[in-house]
Amino acid sequence: MLVVRAINDKDLDGLFNLASQVGTGMTTLKPDMQMLGDRLATACASFAETIPPEERDYMFVMEDTATQRLAGVCAIKGAVGLTEPFYNYRIGTLVHSSRELNVFTRMETLYLSNDLTGSSELCSLFLHPDYRKGHNGKLLSKSRFLFIAQFPHLFTEKIIAEMRGYQAEDGSSPFYEGLGRHFFKMDFHHVDDLTALGKKSFIAELMPRQPLYIAYLPQDAQDVVGAVHKSTAPARRLLEQEGMHYEGYVDIFDAGPVLQARVSELRAIRDSELATIAPDHDMVHACAPATTEPTLVSNTTLRDFRMIISEAGNVNGSIDLSSAEQQLLRCGTGAAVRTLPLNVRKNQ
């Protein structure tokens, strides 16, 4: 069975193995043992509440309990841009007009921006290719929303998610080749690595502060502004189903879209409910009405947050979990759990 749980200090090797599969473009998950070790330590301190909320980095892993293998990882950062600048391009519009010449032109522009500073961030979502089937991707991605619903006080009013931008088959970024290379004079992968290691001062030193006209970029660069990497498209759809949307902010290197939402607008905040684990599973299960959809179920423990998919449903504040499911959640009869239908209702 699969369970999504809070990361712990024994997960470093498994985390490194996952990071080694990621490839370029995800700056928050690089196969660097020192960087991953530091991040894991921050995550453990986050769940232990020994560092301020805005410095926290809640990391979760998906574990295959049959093999103890880590199948995926995801994370939520408490806030971005408070210790070092957080940059995006904001897509704006400039109007050029001449009544005398009867010319009116609207031009899309890129503005270097720190507008999203202080937002909480969903990041580091990666599911091992061996597990990309069934509901596994939904379980991994949506676990973060159930965590936010259980502990909303730990996060800021706005939450964002940077999507990996489009890359060609050879791994190059048309947007970076059309714009960034002119300023940084290095290849995309090197810039990607520097950013992952936290060496971001070059951005402020080298990037132009003036608005940039998108129309002046090569056509292949224009075409990918706001477009996602082909492997990221499913993740984008899942986030949009949960209430996130694109508002014209893109990554400064690959022009991947930044999705955002107010925490109060998330489906998990609106629709998730607490339930009590019912006693006598076998007897109750025989009498319980059949559920028509799978349900996300989590415990309510910060230090040892755990979440699964169950066929049981929340019926009048009670849920009928099997003993195996209770063991995965590390809670028993009478304990409170949080539930959310896995899939978005069609009328929403």
TrEMBL record:
GO terms for molecular function: arginine N-succinyltransferase activity. One of its GO terms (biological process) is L-arginine catabolic process. It is an enzyme of class 2 (transferase). The keyword NADP does not apply. Keywords: Acyltransferase, Arginine metabolism, Transferase. Its EC number is 2.3.1.109. This is Arginine N-succinyltransferase.
